[in-house]
Design goal:
Blueprint: E1 10-13, H1 16-26, H2 35-57, E2 69-74, E3 79-84, H3 91-99, H4 104-115, H5 118-127, E4 139-147, E5 154-159, E6 164-170, E7 179-186, H6 196-207, E8 214-217, E9 225-228, H7 243-254, E10 260-268, E11 274-281, E12 296-301, E13 304-307, E14 321-326, H8 335-340, H9 342-365, H10 367-381, H11 383-387, H12 392-398, E15 400-403, E16 415-416, H13 417-422, E17 431-435, H14 439-443, H15 449-453, E18 458-461, H16 466-470, E19 475-476, E20 479-483, H17 508-521, E21 527-530, E22 539-542, H18 550-558, E23 569-572, H19 577-583, H20 590-606, H21 614-629
Parallel strand pairs: 2-8, 12-14, 17-18, 17-20, 21-23
Antiparallel strand pairs: 1-6, 2-3, 3-7, 4-5, 4-7, 5-6, 8-9, 10-11, 11-14, 12-13, 15-16, 15-18, 19-20, 22-23
Helix pairs in contact: 2-6, 9-10, 9-12, 17-19, 17-20, 20-21
Bound molecules: adenosine-5'-diphosphate and magnesium ion.
Adenosine-5'-diphosphate binds near residues 84 and 103.
Length: about 625
């Protein structure tokens, strides 16, 4: 029986990004091409799980078959086929799923690829799943036959991966009912993928824990033999599971091919019962900072996959991969109802707390491993400091920082707030930090000279998120965070270190000079004053006491938001030769006026900014140099 009309196949072009990706696949000189199989199996398993879920509400969809993935080999025809009895695809699904780059991860991968050097590209393909299109690494022709569950139409998608694909109606007998069959016509150099032993080995190694059974048919008309049984790893006792089992499972689940840095497997009992298997990856996924990136924790109910969009974890834990399998949630709930359920809220809370407490344990037991974790994901975890008030203290405890003290500590250079507080100077009441984009520039910025002279540690914060949480009124152990570029410092009460120049009270000439500079600079600054911050530089800029921090101001104005009243304060070092020298000149000297402006521009440049009026700056500099040469 055929429902297909005799229409000609419709040929379409791939989206430009797909074409680029395909070009890479077709010309892959990539040694580990085996990964294509794990991608096809992952898709087949996803399709089976989607059908299992839809069939809860509509049992007629699934029919009587149990979920199954079958790999069929045909050495003579150089063909490898992966068949599933999952959800299947409509024609529109095929156009969307197999003609565009639908996944944000793949898009981010493409960007990563564009930035990578040639030698690194092959490695990236292996490390991050690139999905269906990887079939073109081993096949010069791919056919996909599919029938969506609940429909009476089958379609055939086909392409040689060279720019176009075509779709036409297919005979119902050609597609599983329902499900998808992917047929790879293997390249001449890829015929090893029709050898039973090779394929079995690859499937066991890469997809051994996929929760759908996988069978192999070694040649046409042979009987299928089971390779894996599709049992759910997370329901087995921990003592039965090896580290390799966990790694394999992590890889098939996360589509990322590093090692898990941390594996959490436990069963919550008591009021609610659920199994958790969660992994912290070793390396950053490409789309970590993609605003559309959702968490990737899967929710199962009694081994039935429900959704991976339940936002099981707070956003700042979005790098965690894994699943929760609940024994209590009803199976027949809609995804929306699940999202609202108090039971889910209890699970969310329990799992997030557990992950944070495991991270804390790791930080105590293996500082270097924890440092590597922090390097990869600290910038994300810090979002929680202002997003999750209830766990703020825990998150501040987990946070690690680079600081002016870290370097001389040996160790791995990371400081905790506990370390910071333990080495605070007498009379020091705040935790001082500097924010910027460049750690080296921060470490040498004039604003922190006075802190150095007094042995006060300054945290050097270079992640964009730092400007936000640090300014959100946080404290740690009762000590407020204070930006070194904001407001008056109260360093006077803290003794300078031995050998450092003690600050002398500013001389009366300095006061007069300050008034002079203020008048000269007018609207460009909100105030001019003497500084306790400076020891070797002549000038620096800071924010006024109640204004916003200068780095935050830069971030906001880069986003087109102009903060109100953000004019900076110019602080001058009254002991500096330049300042005393200029102060001694008569008020009507041209050099004095030029000097006042140049001090401001110099402070701007030290902050990585440009002078307000580049032309005027150049003219003044030229005049001053001409005088020096005269
Ligand atoms: P991903 O699996 O991450 O979404 P892929 O490139 O592997 O990315 O697959 C793209 C899409 O193609 C899938 O999201 C799915 O919609 C569709 N697809 C691929 N294989 C199958 C299949 N066997 N059954 C149903 N849909 C599939
Ligand atoms: Mg996939």
């Amino acid at each position: 029986m055929s429902t297909s009309e005799t229409t000609a196949p419709e040929t379409r072009s791939f989206e430009a990004d797909v074409a680029r990706l395909l070009h890479l696949m077709v010309h892959a000189v990539y040694s580990d091409r085996d990964v294509f199989l794990r991608e096809l199996i992952a898709n087949a398993a996803d399709a089976c799980e989607k059908l299992r879920y839809e069939a809860i509400a509509r049992p007629d969809l699934a029919g009587s078959e149990t979920p199954r993935i079958t790999i069929a080999l045909d050495p003579e025809a150089k063909r490898l086929t992966v068949t599933d009895n999952g959800i299947g695809m409509t024609e529109a699904d095929m156009i969307e799923a197999l003609g565009t780059i639908a996944r944000s991860g793949t898009r981010a991968f493409m960007e990563g690829l564009a930035a990578a050097r040639d030698g690194e590209k092959a490695q990236l393909i292996g490390q991050f799943g690139v999905g269906f299109y990887s079939a073109f690494m081993v096949a010069d022709q791919v056919e996909v036959f599919s029938r969506r569950a609940g429909t009476e139409l089958a379609f055939r998608w086909t392409s040689d991966g060279l720019g176009t694909y075509s779709i036409e109606p297919a005979d119902l007998a050609e597609a599983p009912a329902p499900g998808t069959r992917v047929v790879l016509h293997l390249k001449d150099d890829a015929t090893q993928y029709t050898e039973r032993h090779t394929v079995e080995r690859i499937v066991r190694a890469q997809s051994g824990h996929v929760p759908v059974p996988i069978a192999l048919i070694e040649k046409p008309d042979a009987e299928p033999g089971d390779i894996t049984d599709g049992s759910a790893l997370w329901t087995r006792p921990k003592s039965d599971i090896s580290a390799e089992d966990y790694t394999d499972f992590y890889r098939s689940l996360a589509g990322q091919f590093d090692q898990p840095a941390l594996t959490l497997h436990y069963r919550a009992e008591g009021k609610h019962e659920y199994n958790v298997l969660a992994f912290v990856p070793e390396s950053r996924p490409f789309d970590l900072f993609d605003p559309d990136r959702k968490g990737r924790m899967k929710l199962y109910v009694r081994r039935v996959f429900i959704t991976d969009e339940a936002e099981l974890l707070p956003r700042y834990l979005r790098f965690v991969r894994g699943l929760v399998d609940s024994a209590d949630l009803p199976l027949n709930m809609s995804r929306e109802m699940i999202q609202e359920s108090p039971l889910l809220a209890a699970i969310q809370k329990g799992v997030a707390n557990k992950i944070l407490s495991e991270l804390d344990k790791l930080s105590n037991s293996d500082a270097d491993k924890y440092a590597a974790f922090w390097d990869a994901f600290g910038a994300v975890l810090k979002e929680g400091i202002y997003e999750d008030y209830g766990r703020r203290e825990t998150l501040l405890g987990l946070a690690r920082f680079r600081s002016t003290a870290a370097q001389k500590d040996g160790g791995n250079g990371w400081r905790s707030l506990k370390d910071y507080v333990a080495t605070m100077r007498d009379n020091q009441t705040a935790i001082y930090y500097a924010t910027g984009t460049d750690r080296d520039r921060l470490a040498t910025s004039p604003q922190i000279e006075g802190f150095r002279a007094r042995g006060i540690e300054v945290l050097l914060l270079t992640d964009p998120v730092d400007s936000f949480w640090a300014a959100s009124g946080v404290d740690y152990d009762g000590k407020p965070f204070k930006s070194v570029t904001q407001g008056q410092t109260d360093l006077g009460l803290i003794e300078p270190l031995e050998g450092e120049q003690p600050p002398e009270p500013a001389a009366p000439e300095a006061e007069a000079f300050i008034a002079y500079v203020k008048e000269r600079l007018g609207e460009a600054v909100s105030d001019v004053r003497t500084s306790e911050r400076l020891t070797t530089s002549a000038a620096c800029l800071v924010a006024s006491e109640h204004g916003i921090d200068r780095q935050l101001e830069r971030l906001l104005s880069a986003n087109g938001q102009t903060p109100h009243g953000a004019r900076p304060v110019l602080e001058l070092n009254p002991r500096h030769d330049l300042v005393t020298g200029l102060a001694a000149l008569p008020d009507d000297a041209e050099l004095k006026a030029d000097g006042a402006h140049l001090l401001l521009d110099e402070a701007r440049i030290a902050d990585g900014e440009l002078p307000d009026d580049a032309r005027a700056f150049a003219d003044r500099l030229a005049r001053v140099m001409a005088k020096a040469l005269a």
